[in-house]
Amino acid sequence: MAAPALDFWFDFASTYSYLTAMRITPLAEKASVRVRFRPFLLGAIFQAQGWTTSPFNLYPAKGRNMWRDLERSCADLGLPFHRPDPFPQNSLLAARVALVALDQSWGEEFCRTLFRAEFAHGRRIDDAAVIADVLATFDIDTEPVLAAARSDAIKARLRAQTEEAQRLGVFGAPSFTTTDGELFWGNDRLEPALRWANAAAEQS
Q: Tens digit of pLDDT for each residue in 59-94?
C-alpha cells in the first residue's frame, strides 16, 4: 500500500490559506498523511481568468462576508487576526523564499510564521525586511536564503510550480490534490481531502 500523501497548494496572500497552514500539520499527523507544502502564485491564475485582483475585491458583498467569516473562524480556532492592508499583498518574494526554506527542516514552520506575521500582526509580506525578520527568528544567516530566493533557479521553480497548479485545475487557495488526481478547494475541505488521501492509498 502506498503511503497516504496530500499536496497543500497555498498563496501567502490568501486569507483561508492562513487558517489551513495553522491547522494542517497536526490533522495530517493524526490521519497519518504526509503533506507537502506547495506555494504558488494565485495572481497568475486570476489573471488567466481576466481578473486584476482578488474576487473578494471584485465582488464587495462576497468580500464583506469573507472578512467576517475569517474573523469568526479565527476566533473558533483561537487564532489572532489582523486584517492585512493592502489586500491582497504581493506574495512573489514570500513564495520564492518559501521554496528555499522548504528544502530545509524549518521550512513549514517558516511558512506558518510568515502567515502569522501577515494575518496576526498586520505586517507586509511584500517587504523584504519583514521576510528577513521572520527568517531571523530561525537563527540562520538570512542573506544566503534571500540571495537563493532571487536566483534564476528558484524563479524557474516557482513558475513551474504555478504552472503545475494550473494544469491540475487549481483555481483558488487553499487547494489540496491527492495522488489519484482529486482536487479539493477551501479550508473547509481539508478534512475530506485527508480522508480521501487515506482511502486512495489503501486502494493503490
A: 999 999 999 999 999 999 999 999 999 999 999 999
Residue whose C-alpha is closest to residue 154's, from 41, 71, 19: 41
Contacts of 93 (CB under 8 A, 6+ apart): 125, 126, 128, 131, 149
CB 201 within 8 A of CB 5: yes
Instruction: Mention every residue, 6+ apart, whose C-beta is less than 8 A from residue 69.
Output: none
- CATH 3.30.420.10 holds for 5-203: no
Give the DSSP per-residue string, 26-93: HHHHHHT-EEEEEE--HHHHHHHTT-SS-HHHHSHHHHHHHHHHHHHHHHHHT------SSSSPP-HH
In whole angstroms, what is the distance from residue 47 CA to residue 13 CA? 15
How do residues 167-180 score in pLDDT, each as one tens digit? 999 999 999 999 99
CB within 8 Å of 187: residues ≥ 6 apart:
16, 17, 19, 20, 73, 174
Instruction: Give 88-150 as a DSSP string.
Output: SPP-HHHHHHHHHHTTSTTHHHHHHHHHHHHHTT---TT-HHHHHHHHHTTTS-HHHHHHHHT
pLDDT band (50, 70, 90) for residue 200: confident
Q: Specify burial of residue 140 (Cβ count, 10 A radius: 0-12, 13-18, 19+).
A: middle
Q: Give me the count of residues in the chain.
A: 204
